[in-house]
Amino acid sequence: MSYSPYAAWQPPQPQPAPTPPADPLAVAVGNGSLLGIGYLMLRRWRMATVNLIVVGALVVLLLVLKKPWCESALAGWWVLAIAHGWFLAHTQPRKATDVTKRVLALGITVPLLLAVGLIRYDAGRVEDRVSAARKAGDCAELTEAQRELWFGHRIVDAPGTAQGAEEVRLCKRLEDAKAKLETGLLGDQTALRQGFDVLGSVLAAPGHDRTVEVTLRGWLGDLPVKDPCRTVRITDWLRQRKATNDVLDQSRAVVPQLAPAAIAGCAGRLMTQKKWADARTAYQQLVGQYPKDGRVAKAKAGIRQATLALELLKVRDLLARDDYCSAPARYSGAAPYQRGLNRAVFEGSDEYTARLPASWRAGDVSTAVLVVCTEQSTQGAPVRTCPYHSVTSPMNTSDVTFYKIAAPVKAYELRTGRLVSNTRVQINGAACPSRFSYTTYLPGWDYPPSSQPVKPSNANVQAAFRYLFVR
User: Fold this and answer.
1) pLDDT value at residue 361
2) Measured between alpha carbons, how far is 256 from 227 in angstroms, rounded to an integer?
3) Confidence check: pLDDT of 6 > 60
4) Helix boundaries (H) for 241-275
5) Which UniProt keywords are given for this protein, alphabetically ordered (predicted)?
6) Dihedrals φ, ψ of 45, to 5°?
7) Pseudo-torsion of CA 214, 218, 221, 225, nearest 10°?
8) For every residue of 290-342, which 3-state class applies, written as one string?
9) What is the pLDDT of residue 158?
10) Geometric angle at alpha carbon 158, from 156 and 161, rounded to 5°
11) For residue range 423-440, what is the model confidence (pLDDT) as tens digits?
12) What confidence tens digit (pLDDT) does each residue in 442-454 have?
């Protein structure tokens, strides 16, 4: 048996593409663009993608948080990408200088870094302008400077631009405070408190002493307002405001300069409006708080004038309600009760006081010396007893006693409200007339009454009351 030999054949296998030579410098520079150019040169597609994702995430984090550590993290990643690219390039089996790749890497990275540097420099310039405006207290300039910033500035210098945005926000808070203080110029103390609270909150931020001071001084420059009473409400609030040991305490320094004139002007206006109680309170405030002010003498005169007006108003009210005699009050402007004629006003029964001379009556309570209070008359002292018989029943005879008329009288000195007389005035008159009329309800028992009042003439009435009015 014989065997024939056979030959075995294996088809050729495809050879892997040769790895391109790596240029470490080009790779490192390419990665310095943060775009993963170096990874692309090494054909590390996944690393290039991861790099872009990480860089994008860090940029977003920087824009959202605007913290310096976010910038540090991005800078750290930049250094890491450069070092990693250099390291990977050195691990390649083939290394060679590639001018084209170097030019490409430099052409992308250098302009990008230059643009970042220039934009960051410009952002710093704007930040310096914002800082200078803040130190000068010029919020308008500060806001105008911050408007120069655009998206590029906010990427390359997020913390710095964020600080500028915060400065603008604080300036807007100062605008809110200014609006509240403007409302406070109307005398609204609640708005004043709110405005100062906002100023205090801005003042708590570092570096805003000057902006707060400028805002405060601008508002203080609007004082005093046209209405002196509104100025008083403002200065009252400023004086009572608790000291905070900062620039806001400058507001208290203007109070002594503005308040005396405002209080005097307000009191004068209230006097013109006949708001006596409020006017007296204002004058008393001026005397109490600023005793050395040149307006104090006038204020004291105003206090007396307002007090007299209030006293007179009270007396008029009591007389109008017929309550003076139960609660006498004084009117210090009245003349004293003294020798001579003392005119009076009357309260109570006018049964006999209506018959007094007009010269004894005051035309108005403001010109009166006395307030005379009278009650219903009663039986006084006996004068004479005479026999009378009934006309219808002549046999019915009675002795009739005639009595003076007793009128209860109280007299008060209006100047002091002091009781100067409390007596029963005995009014005399004609007694035992030839006949008088009476009423009986028992026709079968018709006897004249046993007592009758005298019949006083006007002269009798005046004689009885004369002691009160003429001394």
Assistant:
1) 95
2) 18
3) no
4) 250-253, 255-272
5) Membrane, Transmembrane, Transmembrane helix
6) -65, -40
7) -150
8) CCCCCCHHHHHHHHHHHHHHHHHHHHHHHHHCCCCCCCCCCCCCCCCCCCCEC
9) 82
10) 110
11) 999 999 999 988 888 877
12) 666 677 888 899 9
Residue with structure tokens 């308008």? 140
The alpha carbon dihedral of 119, 123, 124, 125 has a sign of positive
Phi-psi region at 322: left, alpha or beta (left = phi > 0; alpha = psi -120 to 50): left
Long-range contacts of 442-448 (CB under 8 A, 24+ apart): 443/392, 446/390, 446/392, 446/393, 446/396, 447/390, 447/393, 447/396, 447/397, 447/398, 448/388, 448/389, 448/390, 448/396, 448/397, 448/398, 448/400
Give the number of other CB atoms < 10 A from CB of residue 137: 20
DSSP 226: S
Residues 414 and 315 sit within 8 Å (Cβ to Cβ): yes
Assigned token pair, 236: 């009252």
User: Rounded to whole angstroms, how far apart are CA atoms 188 and 237?
Assistant: 10
Residue 7 CB-density burial (10 A; 0-12 exposed, 13-18 middle, 19+ buried) = exposed
Instruction: Specify the pLDDT at position 408.
Output: 94
Please state, in angstroms and rounded to a whole number, the distance separating the CA atoms of residues 312 and 329. 9
Q: What digits encode the pLDDT tens for the residues 18-52?
A: 566 788 998 899 998 988 898 999 889 999 999 99
Of 127, 142, 125, 116, the residue nearest 55 (C-alpha): 116
Name the band, by pLDDT with cuts 50, 70 and 90, for residue 1.
Answer: very low
The chain-wide mean pLDDT, for the chain, equals 89
344 — pLDDT class (breaks 50, 70, 90)? very high
Question: CA-based Rg of the chain, rounded to a whole angstrom?
Answer: 54
CA torsion 213-215-219-220 (nearest 10°) is 10
CB 88 within 8 A of CB 44: yes
Strands (DSSP E) found in 100-258: none
pLDDT of residue 277: 96
CA dihedral 339, 337, 344, 356 (to 10 degrees): -30
pLDDT at residue 167, rounded to an integer: 85
> What residues contact 284, with CB distance under 8 A and at least 6 apart?
299, 303
- For the chain, domain boundaries: 24-131, 162-309, 344-432+445-469
Q: pTM (2 decimals)?
A: 0.72
Q: CB 257: neighbour CB atoms within 10 A?
A: 11
Q: Are 282 and 267 in contact (CB under 8 A)?
A: yes
Longest alpha-carbon distance in the chain: 207
The Cα–Cα gap between 466 and 356 comes to 9
